[in-house]
Design a protein that fits this description.
The chain is mostly helical. It contains five helices and no strands. α2 runs antiparallel to α4 and α4 crosses α5. It starts with 14 loop residues before the first helix and ends with a helix.
């Protein structure tokens, strides 16, 4: 008997949840909140990654709920099994999640993401969440 993955208890994920994360990330990009001077770029990246993950979980709850409980890497790989999804979407989602995951973590030899990078990632996540939200909905 195999134990459920560590993501089994993760939130169900919803398109609304993804939109809320994107709205919060956008707020960090537009406004400087007091006390976040050096923290906001990585907080923004975390919110973007959470938005992408919520959109993926919501997709899997619509398509195949058992996939929503596996690791994010497995969810990304499983995108290739959706025949009606544009073939570029799985690679795009995987690349974006990998980039965001790397940018989430502090490395003493790397700079924080720039505003231009954050805005670009925000646009990419927003577009991808829309694609994922519209998939399988009639």
């Amino acid at each position: 008997m195999s134990a459920p993955g560590r993501w089994a208890n993760a939130g169900a994920g919803s398109d609304l949840e993804a939109a809320e994360y994107l709205t919060s990330a956008d707020r960090l990009l537009r406004e400087r909140l007091r006390g976040t001077e050096s923290l906001w770029p990585r907080a923004c990246v975390w919110l973007l990654r959470l938005a992408l993950e919520a959109a993926l979980r919501a997709l899997w709850h619509r398509e195949n709920a058992s996939v929503a409980t596996v690791s994010m890497r497995a969810q990304l790989l499983s995108l290739n099994s959706l025949d009606s999804l544009d073939p570029a979407v799985p690679a795009r989602a995987d690349h974006l999640w990998t980039v965001l995951s790397g940018a989430c973590h502090y490395h003493p030899y790397e700079l924080s993401p720039t505003v231009a990078e954050l805005r670009s990632w925000h646009a990419d996540v927003a577009a991808l969440t829309q694609i994922l939200a519209s998939h399988g909905v009639s």
